[in-house]
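Recap from last week: sequence in, structure out.
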Amino acid sequence: MRGDSTRASSSGAPFSTGESAAAAPEGGPATPIARQLEALLMVADEPQPLVELASAVGAPVAAVRQAIATLVADFDGVGGTVRRGFELREVGGGWRFYVRDEHDPVVRDFVLTQNPTKLSQAALETLAVIAYKQPITRSSIAQIRAVNVDSVVRTLLGRGLITESSTDPETGAINYETTGLLLTHLGINSLDELPLISPLLSDGQGGFDDVA
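Predicted structure tokens:
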């Protein structure tokens, strides 16, 4: 389940084979592979392609595809199971858990009230990178900051300061960009009003532009 609940959608995505959620196995028991996939997807920060999931659990892609279909049906309440508050969707060629659309308000309120008012230095630095380099992927942010930024990105998503803007068609990586809420907090009308970064650098040449 993601803190970035505003990206959730109640509409399911098609399976890689062209099947829909309605064609998923009805009431079939979840296999050990399905439960392994469930555990992996619970901690994944990016959509996971079938090939990568198959490699992780050491199973054929066809078996993983069938297990994913079983999980989708299970979470959707097909065949008499309990419909969960989250769903498993295919996004950008990979699979990921999302909060269901109808639960967005309560999850959003919970995330906002659980977070402290002030952002950490790490969060501010990450937010600055995104603001100046957007759209930008999580891996590119980590490359610029030279640290793992997974938890910080989740915090910024939960605060509504950044959002998932698109998915890289080749890698499936999610691109992030800032939201209108950030402009409100900064008291500016557009990102064009952000101060130039060059005067703040030691030689005026380095910085974010050094990273592709």
